[in-house]
User: Fold these one by one.
Assistant:
Number 1:
Amino acid sequence: MQELPADALAEAETPPGIEIRPLDTVGEVFRAADVLSEVWGGDRSGMPPNLLRALAHAGNYAVGIYDEGQMVGASVAFFAAPGARSMHSHITGLLPGQRRRGLGRLLKRHQREWALARDVGHVTWTFDPLVARNAHFNLRVIGARITDYLVNQYGPMDDGVNRGDESDRLMVSWALAAPPAQTPREDRVVAAVAVPPDIEALRDADPAEAGAWRPRVREQFLAHLSDGLVVGGFDAARGYLFVRP
């Protein structure tokens, strides 16, 4: 296995009682599907047990994260075209109450080690550009790079998290053996796109205001990309930071 770059993931410590392991049995697969359904507000269509079982059996990345033997999260990724040496991380979720424990970092570290051991050099995934905590994690903690803005990527979604909103997503590419991307210097930042600090709370408190953020962010993002800019980083005060490549 290749040596991993020194970064926040490599330095993350595994809390006592936490274990990440493959979904080897039908029972584990069904439990993982239940966990992911709970994370997404009761929706079972995002990762049904039969599809999850097929992906796991075919050798793709399918794991559960356990706390004292109880599954509290799951993650699923599948291989891309053979020549790409890449895989796409389709879904990762932790049960309510499991955030801020560093488990997301542990899952990504495990995913990276698993991928490198199989000669996979890149992992891609998508995330909602309005979710600031995910932008912070993906760009500042992991040091991945945004490669595209995908308008309504999955069409209408009927889960408790996305229902009633269009499914715009940012595509992320993570070069596993490369040093993490760094936040750009101030003199390189030429534009920024702000997002709310907590879109999930805003959707509950003020649905109309939350809904107004989607077209606003989409319009600004696409305009900057069409001008040849790229996302160089993210910070809580300004949002996505755009630079010239």
Number 2:
Amino acid sequence: MGSVRARAAAGATVVVALALIAAGTAVLLVLRDNLQNQAGLEAEVAAREVAAQIATGTAYDKLDLPDGDEHPVVVAADGGRVRAVGEDVRAVDGKRVGAAQGAGSVAPPAEDEDGEGDDRALKPGEVDDDVEHRDGTADVDGTVADYRFAVVEAKDTRGEQATVRAGAALAPEQDAVGSVRDAMLLGLPLLLVVVAGVTWLVTRRALRPVEGIRREMAAITASTDLSRRVPVPSSKDEIGRLARTTNETLAALESAVERQRRFVADASHELRSPIASLRTQLEVGVAHPELLDVPGAVEDTVRLQRLAADLLLLARLDAGERPGGARVDLAALVREESSQRVADRVPVRTGELVSAEVAGSRGQLGRVLGNLLDNAQRHAVASVRVAVVREGEWAVLRVEDDGPGVPESDRERIFERFVRLDDARARDDGGAGLGLAIARDVAVRHGGSLAVRTGSVFELRLPVA
């Protein structure tokens, strides 16, 4: 049962089998009940015909009794003494009855089918309206068979009460029920085979696109070619949606892998420059100690250290590191950062500082503020200004400089990794193009956003704790 098709076919077959068994049982019960009722009606008609003759005064030996093969009849007086018997009727319910008057006896019925006797006294010449039905056997000309008996009370014109018991054969009912049962038993396996086969074929056809998707995914895994896509069926059902979602996942995975490849390539490129410079200076220092540029080596080492720290932080963010839940006051964070920048090229001035607490990592949010101030310092002419305000449920931190601003077409591109708008600028004059990318990633992971609102205003929005 490892195949979906096999499980679907087996499940459908079991369900249909149970349904057919239940329906067949119900049909057989209803059919048997109807046929028994029909036999009881025939027996009642035969019994009432004989009872009517008795009520009109016909002598018992003159009664016109039906043929015993069709409706065995026994007429008994009070006390069970047999007064008349149908032709060839020898026994009823295993009790012998004679062919002549007084030749035997039968037990009179004591109560009807509901277990209640009929206490109403009949008048001479009356036939009881009530009738009792019961199943029994009768021996007619040596053949014992099952019958449905109807028992009717009657009183003749002399006031003598008699009990008429007439039967109708149940053999036709038994034959009919048996025939229907045999037909069901014969047709059920064939129908189940058809159901299993049809379910197998339908399921196979329905799952054919899934097999195509599986084969293509296996080929993509083997080839590592993420540009390939799985076939999308024309149907608008669940399988079609599965194929489209799979292709969307492959596209996202391809984009992520490509972004990771670019990241590794750019990181290698950025690391190569300070490492090469540092190695050159150290080699010169070994050969000519008097020519060793110690400040330059320290500067390259610091730059290499910062770049490694940036790459490490980006790796942690990409790995899904969640910020802490500490409360951070942005206004206090701005005051602390500004107090440490007294020696910057352009002084940092503070505007409105409204106390606004946010939930997150103090270290990461401080890194965002530092990166925004570093970016403003690189482009400012004579002024850098920072402010914190409240806008509803948002805390807004704005960093503004008086530089030329960011062109509108580049306001999203600057947040990409390793992007510098001035590619001709020396790397020593700026960063590696990771500061703004790190700042946006941290802002997003804190439930906020970072964007350029005007040419030189960077706005960080975070939900208030």
Number 3:
Amino acid sequence: MRKKILVSLWITLLFCAISFLFWQNELKYTLPTPVPKNYHAVAMGSTINLGKCWITNNKPVFIHFFNPDCPCSRFNIPHVSALIKKYGDQINFKIVVLNKHKDFTIAEIQKKFNADIPVYFDESMAVKCGVFSTPQAVIMDGSHRLYYRGNYNKTRYCTNADSNYAQMAIDSLLQQTKSPSFDALALRAYGCSLPKCTK
């Protein structure tokens, strides 16, 4: 009888440990990121003041909000790298690193994406664009009007071609067609919360 109780306890403990690891590493990132209490919404079509150091050549601007410690950010690095490679001559890609706990160099971030693009550590840009989660994509037209702010894909690894939201927004902007209408999975933030970039 005692042996059965010990085996039952051990199985229960093992199940709890596996459940906790699954929650920590997978399930909690499928839930929407909580909207901060002091969040100031930025409407689509708003002009974003990028400041002098962000001045571009009238091309659209794509800002990738990235936290190297966020699992969701790490999972979509290959997808973002592919977007940079495909559209880099038509769009000004920029990366904004949002992490308050570690120092990263520009070269380290560029190496992760295998791309020589501008990297910033400007947390105020997230506020300007209405971003409170990583990873997030922000796309502006050549006049710096907010065209898209949202997720890359409904899957963590960006493997579903039918929900490549950021890429769909890029294509519609470049083709000057009507902006696609996206569902909540595209526009509701998922991932790691700011400012600490935890869930």
Number 4:
Amino acid sequence: MFLKNAWYVAAWTSEITRDLRQITVLDEKICIFRTESGDLIGLEDACPHRKLPLSRGRIRGDTVECGYHGLTFDCAGQCVRAPGAGRIPSEARVHAYPLCEKYGLVWIWMGNPALADTADIFDIPNFDDPSWGINRGSAMELECNYLLMCDNLLDPTHVAWVHESSFAAAGTKDTPLRVTKTDEGVVVHRWIMDHEPAPFYKKVICFSGNCDRLQHYEVRYPGHALIRAVFTPAGTGGPDGPLHDDTFIMDSYNFMTPTNAHQTRYYWFQLRNIRPDDAELSAMMSADVQKAFEEDRAVLNEVQKGMTDKRSPHIDLPIDAGPLRFRRQLQAMINEEQQVDRQMAE
């Protein structure tokens, strides 16, 4: 169901403190906290004795003490104290998850720790560039499978109906899509030429009149997306056209973390190439994007209900080419991973 050997977003960095906290990723409960020096620790959230969550226990220095009988675990998940047990049982240990802080996010590796390489974390080129502004919102809880949001983020056409007051504009309903498969995922994109800007972007671009618009929707395995919006004066865009000095670029980064088969935690922020220090612009963009994403959430939550309770088969349309290609390749990766795991267990 899930690709295990991959980095997922576990939390915003500000969410993880010295307090023990339980998070759920890929249907696995994890006790996450910081050491006295600020390092991130993630342990299987179940004491091996009677499975009380370690997050219900106490932090003792850089160890976690179970709140039931006092078994105490170090940062590697090994029991270092077992009151009343004599020697420490060899089975008294819990899984420790590799963690990394990057881009203001906490990343967690859910598979074989020996395969965890932080170089594989999603690359965000302009994150530390002072000439780019940033806006973000709180993580969103979705009552749907993460692949439904991946479908949504490989579907530029949905904006014409779901986001009429923000991202929709002439051309978003019927301009043909181009689908490209990459080693990392799938890209669905199109240039919409010589049309009025969409309402959300009209408030932020630095030119008047019609525009050429790029919709670049890219989702990488297992569920990380870059949505690039480019708005440039009409006649200056297109695949081969030189961009204008007033070209506006917004890169929206979206990270879908499966909680379980029917719930997803969704992290997002945008980088823009204009007015990096304009706090008022950042606040306005965050609020408007949050409103648009709430529209997505309302639709996808209902789609999950419909797909779960369907009485007849659902159909696919030509606009589903990108999502279907992404799903097929991701499932092939999951199947291969599970086959390797079975072989190693034999």
